[in-house]
Amino acid sequence: MALNQRLDLRQTQSLVMTPQLQQAIKLLQMSNAEVSQFVEDALQQNPLLEREEEERNDERAGDERAREGAPDDTAPEARLEGAGADEGSPNMAEDNLWDGDTAARAPGPAEGEAYSYLGTGGGGTEFDGGENVLERTLARAETLREHLLDQLNVDITDPIERLIGAHLVDLVDETGYLTGDLGAAASALDCTSEALERVRTRLARFDPPGVFARSLKECLEIQLRERNRLDPAMQALLDNLELLARRDMAALKSVCGVDEADLAEMVVELRALNPKPGLVFDNSVAQPITPDVLMHADNAGGWVVELNSETLPRVLVNAQYFARLSRGAKSKDDKVYLTGCFQSANWLVKSLHQRATTILKVAAELVRQQDGFFAHGVQFLRPLVLRDIAEIVGVHESTVSRVTTNKYIATPRGLYELKYFFTSSIADAHGGAAHSAEAVRFRIRAMIDNEPPGDVLSDDKIVETLHKGGIEIARRTVAKYREAMRIPSSVQRRRDKGLAQHLARG
Questions:
Q1: Which of 144, 125, 122 is CA-nearest to residue 133?
Q2: Where is the domain boundary, 388, 415, 442?
C-alpha cells in the first residue's frame, strides 16, 4: 500500500463550552446565597466591577453617568389571570423510639424593574459614639467540649487520669456519644484498657446525663441510673429495645414480667429521656430560607409573580474607569488584561440578567400551571414534569431543572422549593384527568390521620377507598407512599393507638 500526502478541506460543526457559557450555566443553578458570594468574589478580582450603591454614593463633581446597552422595557412583574384552576385541575374527590466612578451598565433590566439587581451592598463599619460596642456583641455560647473539660478540670485531679479524660473528651461526637476505638486510644496513650475504662466510667457521670455512652442502650442506662430507676424490669426493657421499636407490647410484657399498665408507665418514662444528650449544646443557628420569587394575589383575582429584589446583586461595569486605564496602558499585556476584565464584567452582568429573566419566566409558568393548588389547596396540585414547562417557556428541560434547583417561592400557602410543583401523575379510575402523586399522598395521610382507633385502615382498605374516589393506584404504591411519609403499618398504628387509649384512661 503506497503512502502519499494530500491536503483536504473539511467543514464540521461542534458545540464548544466556552468559559462564559459555563459561567452562565453555573449561575443558573446557584442559590441566591451562592450567587451573592460569587458576585462578591468577582468584585474583589475585577477592578472594573462595582456595586451600584458605590455609584450612588459617588458625589465627585464632573462625573458623567453613561450606560450602555439598556434592555428593552419589560414589565416589573408577571401578572397571571386566575383561570388556571378551571382548566385541567384535578377533581376534588432511626427512630421508631423517637433553607465610584462614572459607570456604564452592561445590558440588563431598566431601573425599578423586577429584573433589576438590587442590594447586596455591605453595611458601614462606623459606630455611634454614644453606643456601647460591647453591648452589641453576642456572647458565644459554651460548647459541649468546653462544658466537659470544665467538669474534668474540677472533678479529676490526678494528672494522668486528667490526660486520659481530655483524650476521651476529644472522642465525643456532637450527640454526646463516645466514638472511636478505645483500644486504639489506649495504645496511643500507652495506658491499659482498664485505666481507660475506669476514667470513662467517671466521665459518664458528667453533665449532661448520658454523655460518654457507646450505644443508645448505655446512654439510657446512665440516665435511668442517675434517677435511681434502673430496676430489673427497666433493664429488661432496655435489653429489648428492638421489641419496643416494633411496638410488640405482648412480647415486652413477657420479658419484663410486668402487666400492661406497668409497661405503659415504663415506656412513658423511657421516652422522657434524652437519646442524644450532647445536642443540648448544639448552638448552630438554622439559616432561614430567603425566597428567590415572591407571589401574591392581585385585585383582579389573578396572581402577581416577581423576583425578590433583596436576593439579587446589583453590579455595574465602570466604562469610564476602563477608558482611563486603557489610555494609560503602555504594554500589550496591560491592554490584554484590561480588555479581558471588561469583557468578563460585561458577561457577568448579562449572565445575571439572563438568570433573573429565566427564573421569573419559569416561576410565572409554574404558578399558572398550579393555579388550582394556590387557590384551593394541595388536592388540586396538577401532575407536571419538566418537559411541560420547558416547551411553554421555550428552553431546554435541563435549564428548567437548573432554574428550579435550590430556588424558593414565597406564596400565600407558604414557602416552597420550585421543584415541589413537579409531581408524577396517577391515572383516574374513570377516565378523567390524571391525579398528582403529591395530591394522592395528601389524601392518604388525611385518611390515616382521621382513622378511628378501633378501625385502623389497612393498605388494601386505602386502595379500595381511593378507587371509589376515582384514583387508580396499586397497593404497593400506597405502601411506598406511606413509608415515604414515615407512617407505620396498620399493625403498628393499631398498637400505638391502643397504648395511647390505655394511657388516656389511666
A1: 125
A2: 415
Helix 332-369, helix 386-393: angle, nearest 10: 110
**Rounded-to-integer distance, Cα 165 and Cα 171, Å:** 10
What value does the mean pLDDT of the chain take?
77
Smallest CA-to-CA distance from 278 within 203, 181, 207, 217 is with 207
> Which sign does the torsion angle of CA 377, 379, 380, 384 carry?
positive
pLDDT reading at 410 higher than 70: yes
Asked whether residue 250 is assigned to any structural domain, the reply reads no
pLDDT(428) > 70: no
Degrees, nearest 5: CA angle 344-349-353: 145
Total domains in the chain come to 3
What residues contact 347, with CB distance under 8 A and at least 6 apart?
A: 20, 23, 24
Identify which has the larger pLDDT, 129 or 491: 491
| pLDDT tens digit sequence for 58-76 | 444 344 443 444 344 443 4
Give tens-digit pLDDT for 52-62: 764 444 444 34
What type of residue sits at position 7?
L
Q: How far is CA 428 from CA 366, 376, 448, in A?
A: 23, 20, 21
Q: Give Cα 230 distance to the centre of its chain.
A: 40
Amino acid identity, position 163: L
Q: How far is CA 274 from the centre of its chain?
A: 26
Hey, which bits of 192-307 come out as E strands?
A: 293-297, 303-307
Residue 30 lies in a domain: yes
* Sign of the torsion formed by the C-alpha atoms of 201, 207, 213 and 217: positive
Q: Coil, strand or helix: which one is 241?
A: helix
Q: Sheet harboring 303-307: ordered strands across? A: 78-80, 303-307, 293-297, 408-411, 414-417
Strands (E), 367-503: 408-411, 414-417, 425-426, 435-436
C-alpha grid cell, residue 63:
462625573
For residue 279, which of 170, 139, 153, 177 has the smallest C-alpha distance? Answer: 177
Q: What is the DSSP letter of 258?
A: -
Only one residue has cell 461526637, namely 173
- Domain limits for position 200: 144-234+271-281
